[in-house]
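Note to self: the last two entries modelled the partners one at a time, which told us nothing about the interface. This time every component goes in together.
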Amino acid sequence: MIRMPEPDQQVLARRDDIIAALRHIVPGEGVIASENELRAFECDGLTAYRQLPLAAVLPSTTAQVAEVLRYCKANNVRIVPRGAGTSLSGGALPLADGILLGMGKFKQILEIDLPNRCAVVQPGVTNLGISQAVRGQGLYYAPDPSSQIACTIGGNVAENSGGVHCLKYGLTTNNVIGVEIVTLDGEIIRLGGKHFDGPGYDLLGALVGSEGMLGVVTEVTVRLLPIPPTARALMIGFPSIEDAGDCVAAVIASGIIPGGMEIMDKLATQAAEDFIHAGYPLDVAALLIVELDGCAAEVDHLVTKVESIATQHQAVNCRASTSEEERLLFWAGRKAAFPAVGRISPDYYCMDGTIPRKRIAEVLRRMSEMEQTYGLRVANVFHAGDGNLHPLIMYDGNQPGELQRAEDFGADILRLCVEVGGVLTGEHGVGVEKRDLMPSMFNETDLNQQQALKCAFDDAGLLNPGKVFPQLCRCAELGRMHIHGGKLPFPELERF
Amino acid sequence: MTHHQPGDAAELSAIVSTAAAAGETLSITGGGSKRRLGRHAPTASTLDLSRITGIVDYEPAELVLTARAATPLAEIEGLLASQRQMLAFEPPDWRALLGHTGAPTLGGVLACNQSGPRRLKAGAARDHFLGFSAVNGRGEIWKAGGRVVKNVTGYDMCKLQTGAFGTLSALTEVTVKVMPRPETARTLLLPVTDATAALALMSTALNTPHEVSAAAYLPTAVLARSRVSGALPAGNGLVALRLEGPAPSVAHRTDALEAAFGTSARLIDVDSSTLWAEIGAVRPLLDSAEIVWRLNPTPSKAVQLLHILAAQPCDASFFMDWGGGQIWIGLEAAQAGPDAKASAIRAALAQTGGHATLFAAPDELRAQTEVFEPLPPAHAALSQRIKRNFDPLGILNPRRIYKEF
Ligand SMILES: Cc1cc2nc3c(=O)[nH]c(=O)nc-3n(C[C@H](O)[C@H](O)[C@H](O)COP(=O)(O)OP(=O)(O)OC[C@H]3O[C@@H](n4cnc5c(N)ncnc54)[C@H](O)[C@@H]3O)c2cc1C
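The predicted structure of the combined assembly is written out below.
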């Protein structure tokens, strides 16, 4: 298990005072302090980790957020922001001596701006809620995490979430054009907006994916896209994962960027089929789903092209959807792959590494060797277009030692991803889960440079500590390093 | 003035460490093509990265390319073209605009977030930047990001480097996402009566699902300067819409747009690419204007912005790209006055939202006038803290973006 920072005993001792002060800022039901009610917040989607927060604070205005943060800074209280709590990396895991800042009351869609094809929403609006609100206008918000009915756009911004359509349409960072944030100092800053790009450093870009550690997001402007008139899916079976991977490479090499491209291995296909009855072939080693979207002329043209590429790559069967119902059915199994695996194992642990796609066969072979070593099975779901793997490690948390084995197995998989030229996480974030693996990708200088950014936003280290960085360096120490060997630049300027 | 020319990251690191100890300020250049972009802020020495070149790795099927930072853009685009791929953000050629002949480099394109007409659909340079190695203002070699297209491990430092104009670190090696080159491209030219009609047309077209990959409005005077003007219909100006993709798709979408907006003239092949190259390059369409502003308003407010500015007595020429989200304005120095019209332009933008950049102007003007939109105080203070944490001695391109740092 990953260790969280030691709670500050002085803060714990002042709990009653802190709660009283917070109630002053967010009156009524806005501060939750009873153990019973706090249970609801004790974990996020990484359920193996649980911790009750000092208190939960549920503000409903930006001014309240600013005042809460100012209070916390003045009183040395840590803050963990939270949206819907679906993070799979423990990004929203509470701290014993910290408040949980729930953004659930920020639920309004503030503006739908058709001429500029964007929407201004509060951070607690769900990902799907945005698309639903603009569907009547023929528009949608492209990034579509599988958790989209539940997860919030604020959480998406913090995690830079992806989805099956992100190879063609981009991740959150490519589709969010503005935010309002509150810094730990209680300053309200707007980054980006409805215009293109912006002056100065791209702080919007740095904020997206910062896992709640740089500022609290209180408003988000998202880019909307016209809904493609047609979409068709192909369901293609292969005798080996390698063939499926080669087919994906050949599709891309032929100049096609499909709306989605997903591979499932035999175990995942079987579990999904047993659960959903999508008609998946069960005699294949790998199932590839390819979705093509655009105008009908384009989609039909590309379906034919992909079919012929598949045939050249040993596909044993290939079906193209001919109706919307059929397309949705092809997807239904894939979309339910996680719960389907949940049906065949008491617990599962979802990994999220990305690899160069050409290494897929090797990575899967070594993963199956690890299955032997750890005595645990893995089902594989794979965003094939961009090489993002989701191995699902099956374990039973009630068996002593199995969780630890699953975690060790997972860590080995992620180290393998890095070893073959990939990365620790493609879309779920580092959080608590992968924090201690960061040195496998980055050396101390690299990590210090990232923390230099953190220090510019939060020099007290109070915003979501214990996530992302194996060791939080003290900003003052970074500062001392900065000055050695020379004098401060621009001594005439005010220091902030 | 010392001219440093490191051959690799280790030599660069040594030079920067020494410069940091001595407080020696450095101007970073790659090919030198954008030396006159940004504030005019001379330094003690030049840090010339032009020897740090070479393509390190290119995997067409993985959609990634890694190159040393000063690799000429032309070399990269040539290699990509050989595999029918491209940089989707369509980096424009600003050499004539900025009055320089140096060869643009990939690192420079990223450092300046240099994006062309397809930015409208495909995103900016920042959206295609996946990972890098660099040397910070203390001379430390560091890296961030990765060599795969999907990665959220750690903060997105690539975004921070894009558009930082070399003020945070000197890039030594970069990895970018590449995309397939569209099989066909076609530009539809639709006559319009004025800017208001043009903006409305572009907005309507962009709200259709016909995947317009670029949308510009060219008033008559500007059109006349185009090399393809012979192929253009006469009138009060044109809206140009580009469609790209497989041939059957482009044909279908052409029909759909023409059904909605009337029959248009079409540009294909070289004529289409020439027009968009001119739009990206700006200079061919604005001719010899000494002062060039780039305005990035809220797109739907583009005409309102022009109207506010038109109240100013001056004979500017302009055109719009990015569906109204980018307006290029050319002025003669004599008309522009001592601040190059900065205060008028920025006052107008305060009403419409957005920002303005004094893009091309004589050195003295770019020393006196804020080239980039001034930031609100809290935002400025935060930016300054970031600068200090990357380059504590303020030696990398100091005052290139803002005079405070
Ligand atoms: C079944 C399932 C499927 C999933 N599928 C996908 C998928 O396909 N793709 C994908 O990318 N992810 C997926 N996820 C992961 C998760 O849904 C995303 O990371 C999501 O963005 C989290 O949103 P949330 O609102 O639940 O945020 P939370 O879990 O509450 O918080 C996540 C992080 O965001 C921070 N945060 C939240 N709100 C704010 C705010 N307003 N300001 C600042 N920081 C904030 C938190 O501090 C935390 O660090 C899945 C999760 C589950 C359970």
